[in-house]
Amino acid sequence: MYDAIIVGARCAGAPVAMLLARQGYRVLLVDKARFPADIMSGLFIHPRGVALLKRWGVLHDVLATGCPQLYSAAFDLGPIELKASFYPVNGVDFTCAPRRYLLDPILVAAAVGAGVEFRDNTTVQELLMDEDGCITGIRARTAQGTTVTERTRIVIGADGVHSFVARAVKPEAYHVNPILTCGYFSFFSDVTVPRLKAYIRPHRFAVSVPTNDNLVMVGAQWPIEEFARIRTDVATHFYELIGQIPELATQVHQEKQVGRFIGTGHVPNFFYKPYGPGWALVGDAGYHKDPILAQGIADAFEDAEMLVKALTRGLSGETIMEEALAAYERERNESCLPQYQLLMQFAALAPPPPDMQMLLSVIAADPEESTRYLGVLQRSVPVAEFFAPEHIASLMA
Ligand SMILES: Cc1cc2nc3c(=O)[nH]c(=O)nc-3n(C[C@H](O)[C@H](O)[C@H](O)COP(=O)(O)OP(=O)(O)OC[C@H]3O[C@@H](n4cnc5c(N)ncnc54)[C@H](O)[C@@H]3O)c2cc1C
């Protein structure tokens, strides 16, 4: 009997497992992928995520993979360019963008180092339930085709946007917004970009970020309405968009492309109620949003910390589990909701209205305010604080 079984061993699941095991709980971590494996995801981690890697003692290993430390970002809106240092979080003033096939195994190794039992190549196919409807375990299939049954006090779905656990427990969804964008990215050699750089054009978005092996990830996003057209010939549409951005057009060519295009038109925007009897959800499984602001990895890390705080109160008997997990849901929502609407505005890919353009040009002229604005996009400066009428009035004055 485990204290917790965690389904999904990446940015959300591996830290939950590690943090629980560090407190002495007996944890099983399973993933259907064979590790190390890549996943359809960007790589950029906001400073608040890097700060957690540091606190967990794994940042050194992540940086040792050779992914560069990035100290600033730039937003090119055509007529306006906003350059800023990252807003520091707990003394961390940089970000990095490690390849996921390198990052995720480091997180799993930290979990295993803390005493977690890890089984990859293991697909959870059924949740076990008692007569009161409480989840009590999993039934999973191994790569060898064997079916295994394991019992636990709680099953945690850290199994991503297509969460099997969520489909099985059917949680209530709220703050649901339609899918807004589709996107594709790939990796390129011999491209010089010293920082994260985003290019914002009407109904188009592109981003470049240096990663491991001297490669640069270049991504592009379009309105979801264009997905059917884009997916028929991703390369043509991708290079067409890049061709409209002179700085990238001169550097990003097919000959320098390393690997294929990776992307999706399935980036839903929703919150799930993340708990019920014998189960909880964490990371993308419980809250999914458009990747345009690259929040998913840092959110998954923070979510893991919040969930573990609640679980330890519930598992230790300090609080009734249901109350502890209700507090987790409140904390998650209070932390994520304020920026969710801003994110939806970004993902709409509409040109900023004239008053916003004016404000952005004022911010761009002031390095301190540029960093605070970047802090808003990092989800480190509260949206309400930055956009408080007095602050906006003082900026415009
Ligand atoms: C195109 C794109 C670009 C993105 N770019 C960024 C970015 O630059 N920065 C950023 O922060 N975020 C980005 N994101 C979001 C980010 O990828 C996710 O938020 C993050 O990966 C969520 O982590 P997770 O651990 O919750 O889920 P995942 O990373 O999806 O991991 C889920 C795991 O569960 C396993 N699993 C699923 N079902 C089962 C099962 N039945 N049994 C066992 N295992 C199972 C899977 O194999 C997988 O390993 C991007 C997303 C997309 C789609």
Describe this structure in words.
By secondary structure, the chain is an alpha/beta fold. It folds into 3 domains: 2-38 and 99-176 and 268-346, FAD/NAD(P)-binding domain (3-Layer(bba) Sandwich); 181-264, 2-Layer Sandwich (D-Amino Acid Oxidase, Chain A, domain 2); 350-396, no CATH class. The protein contains 14 helices and 18 strands. It has helices at residues 13-22, 47-55, 59-63, 100-113, 164-169, 227-232, 234-243, 246-249, 296-315, 321-347, 354-364, 367-378, 383-386, 389-396, and strands spanning 2-7, 27-30, 72-76, 81-85, 117-119, 122-129, 135-142, 147-157, 173-177, 181-188, 196-201, 204-210, 216-223, 257-264, 269-272, 275-276, 279-281, 287-288. The strands form 3 sheets. Strands 1, 2, 5, 6, 7, 8, 16 and 17 form an 8-stranded mixed beta sheet that branches. Strands 4-3-11-12-13-10-14 form a 7-stranded mixed beta sheet. Strand 1 (2-7), helix 1 and strand 2 form a beta-alpha-beta unit. Helix 1 (13-22) packs parallel to helix 9. It is globular and about 60 Å long. It binds flavin-adenine dinucleotide. Flavin-adenine dinucleotide binds at residues 7-13, 30-33, 39-44, 123-124, 158-160, 164, 183, 263-264, 267, 283-285, 291, 294-298, 300.
